[in-house]
């Protein structure tokens, strides 16, 4: 029935075009002939393929024809991919009754989107979707030689092992507790200073500065100069802007020609600056010991430099990996904490309950990492915020099918980009009771793991490419949240807006401005 209607539609459209061009050109040759041949061909491939233009060469089994959206000619569904892409895609999947798998085109890129835990598990946890789709800006910024975008071969496995052992292991996280704690104290002072000087606190700036300080300390050690730190801040923020920008080349083979904003050029310039700065930091670190094999510090760079020959990385690969850690570790913790504090100033009863728990279990001394497992309500608050505001609503960077595969009964060819709409899953009323309500208690009533085993709530992804920094990220969020609540009572200084803006991560569109007592 659907195909029938479409066929009639494009025959009528062709006839209309033929008529229009005949009238407009007053000479019937050659435009009408050309149009009447090309148009049906184009429309045929665009209109009757589920998912639109990018799927034109894929033949689906008649028993398992997927549901898809055709989108705009050539662009496909690209116009949906703005700052609220997760919401628009969720609405689309629902309206097409395609929560399990929705087919669409982003330019010439075939894409499937899962908004259901079952298909999300198949995509994230199987081996078929173990690569990332090409992102030109990520490649120019060297991330293809780092964990996030390296193809899933031996090199990527080696990097993950190094990071798991020397950056994110429980021992390393425990060793770095002193640093995180010290940064927390500095943030408290800054909060107090802002209150005294301005009468209000712009929390985002304080948290971003703290996150950067903390990640720089664990990656490079504490020797970095103020100037170098400032340059790193600027580099990370430019990298965020560039990588979050729309890039034609990611979706069309010759899209690079349309780089009107010069994103490609700016990425190359930034990569040169990153290489120069981190290259110098590596050289300086090496020269502090002379032999280059005598590092006894705990920072990640010292560990990388002291690896045995067979495990060691070239300098340019080490630069890519160190840059990735700084880049990834800076913003997301600050973003989560800003969402949490926004919710807590809007719900003073929940804030009071969290403070009461802290009082009861920890008392007046500063909270430590070992207290966190006992702070069940505090953990429930973090979970509830990650459910309502997952920092990667489409799980940051998508996955790429490395071979043909079936997801459920639907065929997905190699080269397809797969996205999981975690935001749609965490807001689905058939999965979560009262999904729009902020109710941390739900996680006291039911134990739900955040770490990737339960696809109803997997803000860190799942499977072989699950976020390797999740334990460090959570330890930091819990510790700093507990300290912020222990020290101050938080109230809004201006109306709090919960509107979202999806760039690389999903931020609060309007920064939170509070007062403390
Ligand atoms: C605390 C909040 C964080 C959140 C919500 C988060 C979220 C994510 C998500 C959704 C992915 C993609 C997972 C997938 O494809 O299945 C990811 C990957 C990654 N994350 Fe995180 N992340 C966080 C913190 C961190 C930190 C602190 C670091 C490092 C310092 C980090 C480093 C990485 C890396 C290197 C990858 C790529 C993994 C791969 O492709 O093998 N993340 N993260």
Primary descriptors:
binds protoporphyrin IX containing FE; about 525 residues; 12 strands; 5-stranded mixed sheet; Flavonoid 3'-monooxygenase protein; alpha+beta; 3-stranded antiparallel sheet; EC 1.14.14.82; oxidoreductase
How would you describe this protein?
This is Flavonoid 3'-monooxygenase protein. Its EC number is 1.14.14.82. It is a single chain. With 517 residues, the chain is an alpha+beta fold. The strands form four sheets. It has a five-stranded mixed sheet with strand order 1-2-3-8-5. A three-stranded antiparallel sheet has the order 4-12-9. The N and C termini lie far apart (65 Å). It contains 18 helices and twelve strands. Strand 6 (405-407) and strand 7 (410-412) form a beta hairpin. Helix content is 50%, strand content 8%. The chain has helices at residues 2-25, 31-47, 85-95, 117-125, 136-140, 154-166, 170-175, 177-198, 203-220, 226-244, 263-287, 300-305, 315-346, 348-361, 376-388, 422-426, 442-445, 470-487; strands at 67-68, 102-106, 109-114, 201-202, 399-400, 405-407, 410-412, 417-420, 490-492, 500-502, 506-508, 513-516. Residues 291-295 have low confidence and may be disordered. The relative contact order is 0.14. It binds protoporphyrin IX containing FE. The site of protoporphyrin IX containing FE (HEM) has 28 residues, from helix 13 and helix 18. The site of protoporphyrin IX containing FE has 28 residues, from helix 13 and helix 18.
């Amino acid at each position: 029935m659907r195909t029938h209607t479409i066929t009639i539609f494009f025959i009528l459209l062709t006839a209309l075009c033929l008529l229009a061009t005949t009238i407009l050109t007053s000479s019937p040759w050659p435009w009408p002939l050309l149009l009447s041949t090309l148009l049906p061909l184009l429309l045929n491939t665009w209109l009757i393929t589920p998912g639109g233009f990018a799927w034109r060469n894929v033949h689906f089994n008649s028993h398992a024809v997927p549901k898809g959206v055709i989108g705009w000619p050539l662009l496909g569904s690209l116009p949906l991919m703005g700052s609220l892409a997760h919401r628009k895609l969720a609405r689309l999947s629902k309206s097409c009754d395609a929560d399990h798998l929705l087919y669409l085109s982003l330019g010439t890129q075939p894409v499937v989107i899962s908004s259901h835990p079952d298909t999300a598990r198949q995509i994230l946890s199987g081996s078929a979707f173990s690569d990332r789709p090409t992102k030109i800006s990520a490649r120019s910024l060297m991330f293809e030689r780092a964990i996030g975008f390296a193809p899933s071969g031996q090199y990527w496995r080696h990097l993950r092992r190094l990071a798991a052992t020397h950056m994110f292991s429980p021992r390393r996280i425990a060793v770095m507790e002193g640093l995180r704690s010290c940064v927390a104290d500095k943030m408290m002072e800054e909060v107090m200073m802002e209150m005294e000087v301005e009468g209000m606190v712009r929390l985002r700036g304080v948290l971003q500065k703290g996150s950067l300080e903390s990640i720089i300390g664990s990656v490079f050690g504490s020797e970095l100069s103020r100037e170098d730190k400032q340059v790193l801040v600027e580099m990370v923020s430019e990298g965020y802007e560039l990588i979050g920008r729309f890039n034609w080349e990611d979706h069309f083979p010759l899209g690079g020609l349309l780089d009107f904003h010069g994103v490609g050029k700016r990425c190359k310039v930034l990569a040169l600056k990153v290489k120069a700065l981190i290259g110098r930091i590596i050289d300086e670190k090496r020269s502090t010991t002379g032999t280059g094999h005598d590092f006894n510090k705990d920072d990640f760079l010292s560990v990388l430099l002291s690896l045995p020959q067979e495990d060691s990385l070239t300098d340019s690969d080490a630069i890519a990996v160190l840059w990735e850690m700084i880049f990834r570790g800076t913003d997301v913790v600050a973003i989560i904490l800003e969402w949490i504090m926004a919710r807590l100033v809007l719900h003073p009863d929940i804030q009071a309950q969290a403070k009461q728990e802290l009082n009861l279990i920890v008392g007046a001394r500063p909270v430590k990492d070992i207290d966190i497992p006992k702070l069940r309500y505090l953990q429930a608050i973090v979970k509830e915020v990650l459910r309502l505001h997952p920092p990667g609503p489409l799980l940051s960077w998508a996955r790429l099918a490395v071979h043909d595969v079936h997801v459920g009964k639907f065929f997905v060819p190699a080269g397809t980009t797969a996205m999981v709409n975690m935001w749609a899953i965490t807001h689905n009323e058939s999965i979560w009771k009262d999904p729009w309500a902020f109710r941390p208690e739900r996680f006291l009533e039911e134990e739900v793991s955040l770490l990737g085993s339960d696809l109803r709530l997997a803000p860190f992804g799942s499977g072989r490419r699950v976020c390797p920094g999740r334990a460090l990220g959570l330890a930091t969020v819990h510790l700093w949240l507990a300290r912020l609540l222990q020290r101050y009572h938080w109230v809004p200084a201006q109306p709090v807006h919960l509107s979202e803006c999806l760039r690389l991560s999903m931020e609060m569109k309007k920064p939170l401005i509070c007062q403390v007592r």
